[in-house]
Amino acid sequence: MTMAKFLNILQKEIKDLLTLRMILPFLLSIFILFFMGRIMERTIERALKPTAIGVVDHDKTGASLRLIEGLKKSGNVVVVLNEDDELNAIQRAKENGLLMVVVIPGGYESNLKDKKVTEIKLYSIITALSITASAQRTNIKNFLKTINQQVAESFVRELAPDLNMEVLREPVKAKEFVVLRDIIQPGNTSFIIAYISTQTTIIPVALLMLIIITGTMIASSIAQEKENKTLETILTVPVSRFTIILAKMLAAVILAILFALFFVIAMGSFTSSFGAMEKNNLVEMPVKSTAINLGLDSSSKFLLIISIFLAIANALGMATLLALFAQDVKDAQNAIMPLTIMILIPYFFSMAFDPGMMSPGLKIFTFLIPFSHTFFAFKFLLLGQKLYVALGNLYLLIFAFVLLFTTTRVFASEKILTMKFTWGKFRRRL
Amino acid sequence: MQAVIIQNLYKNFGNIKAVDGISLEIAQGEIFGLIGPNGAGKTTTLRMIATLLKPSSGTIEVFGFNVEKEDNRVRELISYLPEEAGAYKNLRGIDYLKFMAGFYARNGNDKNKIIEKALEIARLGNRINDRIRTYSKGMVRKLLLARALMHNPKLLILDEPTSGLDVMNSLEIRNLIIDYAKGGTTVIVSSHNMLEVEYLSDRVAFIHNGKIIESGVPAELRNKYQAENLEQVFVKSIRQ
Fold first, then answer.
1. Mean pLDDT of A211-227
2. CB pairs under 8 A between A and B
3. Which parts of A114-159 are beta strand (E)?
4. Which fold is adopted by the domain A49-173?
5. Is the pLDDT of residue A423 over 60?
6. Between chains, do A5 and B104 touch, taking CB under 8 Å as contact?
7. Nearest to B86 among A16, A230, A430 (CB)
8. Cβ contact (<8 Å) for B52 and A232?
9. Which ipTM score applies to this complex?
10. Residue B130, domain extent
11. Cβ-based contacts of A5 with chain B (< 8 Å)
12. Who has greater pLDDT, A54 or A212?
């Protein structure tokens, strides 16, 4: 009988929470994330395309032709521009979407022969300030290097034709390895660190959205009972207050898990954009770029999932408790402000600091906030510090129990009808 | 057996005495009217009987059960319709009745019977399949009254049952209450509309500043105070 009543409320709550007004912001954020992933992927692929260069050759000698050939060989798409006037050449380059114009002056070959410096003009055409443009502009430096390397090599070849150019170019070669926990793998350190920092940025953002949205949902659900004047009726039906509040929270947890799954799929789409780098063999990834498979072992994944689940449970408990004093949905949005602050602090801290960098005072302050344990969990697990995460989970569990107990007590008391939340103070209402 | 026994009931909100030493008894099957101006303590008293508020001191018994100590048992016997009650606007009328029937039905058959009865009381026709947000105030009130009556409560507590309704809807609601009470249910009805309570009630009590200042059968009270109606009785009883 009690179970039937519990399921009766649970079913109604799920129906009530699944209104368009409730789920639209969430669906929107997932939609944005999903398409950001697609856009990011395309952007990276575009950034990795060879740079299109226009060349104006005023010299028209064997040396200048060799220079053009060299440019082609070093991975650039070269378009020879026949305009004599540089301004006309730039105009044509713009029309053809070229990013640079290289002007080889007359006398280039003779200067080389006389071992004199030649000034080659490089016109960079800035059309965008996006990630694509910045990546392509990095190629300018490489381009200059290529030119100087070619010329220097030709001088050396003249003086010492038998010398091995490979050895001359790089007599000391570096082979990079990355050591992460017990994994040792060859790879470009800067790319791997960039990848990890991207992951430690994306996960908190996802978590932030998930917690705030589910907290808002449960707060609205409770406040709606007051706004629609249905609370007094439901409190006088023969069902315990504990059953009512538990059904409400469980409904929110079920939906939170459902939304979390959608989120993970959307995140997967977002992070798979890193696959574009892998495909081009520019990065040797130590881990696969999916949201769930973060290069963590099974027990780490388990700890992370438990941590996320407990963070959601804490957010629900806290949002419910705060919303109990709100009079309507608008009031409830204000009431959950402390929860939002408690989520934002560890969110920013987890992105800005490593726990090792924090002063003892800041560390205590940060980790007294239950959500900090979840926000830092990924960093800890990545470094193999499972014990910290396990202890954090224990803290989250205790906090969740205290919240649930307090919420039930308040819900069972008459305070739910007589107390009203206003900014800075509680006011008794007759 | 008395349906409700209230003894030395007090309820304070901080320094404010909302209910100030009420004692009264309501017989089984009686329609009892609690009359008083706004802020007199009617709603607070009804909320305490309905287990929503706890008395500061004193006791309330509903069919022998103490509302503080045996609140779950009391909730099985009562039905409370608050003054400004609403329904879940996103639900259809029929779904709301199904949801509420779920708290009283022992099985599927029982649930169907409860819902059928609610449909009879509500008399909303095909509109019962529409979303509650599209209902007029009168329709919502009828739906809520049907909800309150559908499971045959032993004690029906109605706080300002016709508040904000037009004449036709008010009359319909009053007749519904009278028809229903003929079945033997005890009804406590509160109102600041004294003529309405006079029309409905077997016995009434006047409440003013948290105290019962007079109680009795309407006709006897009119005689006692040489008054034409309960409004005049109320004014004269306050002056005394």
1. 82
2. 76
3. 121-124
4. abc type-2 transporter like fold (3.40.1710)
5. no
6. no
7. A230
8. yes
9. 0.92
10. 2-239
11. 102-103
12. A54
